[in-house]
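Q: A reviewer asked whether we had any structural model of the full assembly, not just the individual parts. We don't, so I'm hoping you can provide one. Inputs are below.
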Amino acid sequence: MTAPVLSRRPAPAASATAPRRSLKDRGTRLLAALFLAPTLVGVLVFTVVPIVGSVVLSFFHWDVIGTPRFAGTDNYTQVFTDDTVLVSFTNTLIFMVFAVALQLLLALALALTLTNRMPSWLRSTFRSAFFFPLILSAASISVVMKYLFNQDFGVVNWLLGHVGIAPVPWLTSEHSAMAAVILVYVWQQFGFSFLLFVGGLNTIPKEIHEASSLDGASGLRKHLSITLPLLSPTLLVASVVGIINALQVFEQPYVLTDGGPGDATRTVVMVIYQSAFEQLRFGEASAIGVLLFVLIMAVTALQFRLSRRFVHYQ
Amino acid sequence: MTDSNFPRRALLRGASYGAGAAALAGVAASWDRLTAADVHGRDDHALVVATLGSSVDPAAQRALSDGFRALHPGLDVRLVPVQATDWSDFFAKILTQIAAGTAPDVVYVATEGVQLFAQRLGVALDDRVRRDKEELREYFADVHPSLVESMMFEGSLYQLPVEFNAADIYLNRAVLKRSRVELPPPDWDRDDFTSLLRTMKRGGGSGFTPYFWTNRLWGGVVPWLFANGTNVLSESKAPGGDWLWDTFYPPRDRRGRGGGYRWTGPQATADRVEEVYEYLSSLIQDRLCSRPEGGSGTNLVGVFSTGRVGVTPAGGFWAGGLHTAGMRRDAYDVQYFPRWRTQRHQFGAAGYALLKTSKKQDEAWEFIKYSVRRDVLTQLFRANQTTPARRSMVHAARYEETGPQNWPVFYDTLDRFPATGPIPAPPQVAEVEQLLLKHTGTALADARGVRPALRRLQSDLEKAMERAA
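A: Here is a predicted structure for the entire assembly that you could use as a starting point for your response.
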């Protein structure tokens, strides 16, 4: 007889607890909102407002000193017909492709090497050494590298001279300047991807590798069929961050070559800086900034779209 | 029923949010723009003077401000040393300060920015100079008219020169000795120069570069353009300025003076310009000089003092630099830039400009006058980091410890070659400089690069000048 009683137990118990839960939920949400609010305000003030400001400014002529004058789409027309700007976009894309590819390959190769058996102290030493350039200032590194790569007095050519190689105009030839800038950039930046990959590799369960070994998989097969697919989310993050950073490269080419020789290493951000702060054409600089923003958004969106196919989550 | 209510509530909520946002935006828009100047207590009474950070040491800067305060009790001077890599970087930072609402009252401006500041921000000093002419007579008598003329724009004077540097040639005595050659004579020419480089190269070894130079507006390709009697922009003089010349200078010094320089039509494809680039290109091909972009002023002292460089163009400022670096005064010397078609030199000068935005213009003028006093300049330039604009300050005692034996060259460059003039710096100087440096690099990349690069330079300069017109 208990069953019918139980079955007749009224639903109010559930309905009575519902409002309490709802209140609790609401309180939690409010608390979360309170915690998030300062950051949100920061993002609005320091990110959203400047972006909107740049977009607005891109439709004005402004030289800092005078009053802004409405320019319509003049600045965009100017940008699309300016050879220097177009070359800078091409340079930046070339830089991005090679710098990111090299950076990821180097970081991945070193991360894979360091997951092999090795005394822990030696592994820590290598990890610290690879990460070290990342915490240094890009400008100061570039100043030092400028000395090292100097055609007449640099250490690099001095060393090459000892093995009979003629001095290379690293930073002063249109053929080698971009390569030198990429090398310096990759040397400094790969530590970030390297750390990500070390972390990603540590999350791959050893059992999977052990099982594949039992099945007779070779080292290369294990990397291609197990490590890389399981590392793909990390690869995605590293490549997205790497591409965004590479598209905004400034310090290295600015200090090493000042964009030269000619326009060989002039990047988009460098042109933005020069247009705004050297030539006082803030409207034009903003228009270039807006185009770079759109480019970065497009490339990032494309990456995420492609990632649906290539990224595997456990 | 609940379904039908939801959109209405959502609509009302959305409308109220929208109204709130619009109200906030309205309130924000109605506020006066908040600038850094609104920070309480910030420079509300002091006279703010912006200087290029590294040009004067802190002790000398203190002497400048303390001395002025002693002379004008109740008027504080706040010196703002702005750190910058070069003059264009310095000007960019000053303009950013102005945009932020924290414009200084007085700015230290070199030739590179004289016309830019004069055209947009500067206050002409004409009336004040006329008013205080008796007080200033001694100053102008002590300063070469070429320096004063370089501070004029369209007939008006915008700055009183404080210092200058002409591009002379520094020679390493150890290298001269090694090459068994003497210091060249004052009237040496381009062929003597080339011959000297070849001699130096022969005994220099593999890591030796006879001629070191940098790709910049001052001391780059421009001294060679001047020596060949040309320039990248056609040069003329603005009318006016008689009020100044007639008041302060004797007839022999007035001759040919005007109201300041005008640099207008680009002439990068002129034969003489091409000759200069061809010559420099040939020096590079023969490995007699560094490539322009490879050079850098920061490592120049090291390579010069250790005998890895034979000669380099520099002004009086370098005497102080070499002394600081530990180079003995008898280890190097200085000579005029060699003659080509002319022996006209280029120089750059600097002085304080009064800004339109200043609310203390009279006080700022008092500071400008104070800054060019002999006793003040003596305190400021103790370390020989530049050539003082006052002739009376350039004497043997000044260079006894820190200078080369041939120190009279520094000021005599102006006296001996009266046509010596400022580097080309029209109001759109930043773009001109950027284009010149960019295309100089390309022109000298290989032997066949000169003509196409100069054509591009010409075209880009034309666009830049048209855009600014």
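A: Points you may want to mention in the reply: The longest strand of chain B covers residues 346-354. Confidence is low (pLDDT under 50) at residues 1-6, 25-40 of chain B.
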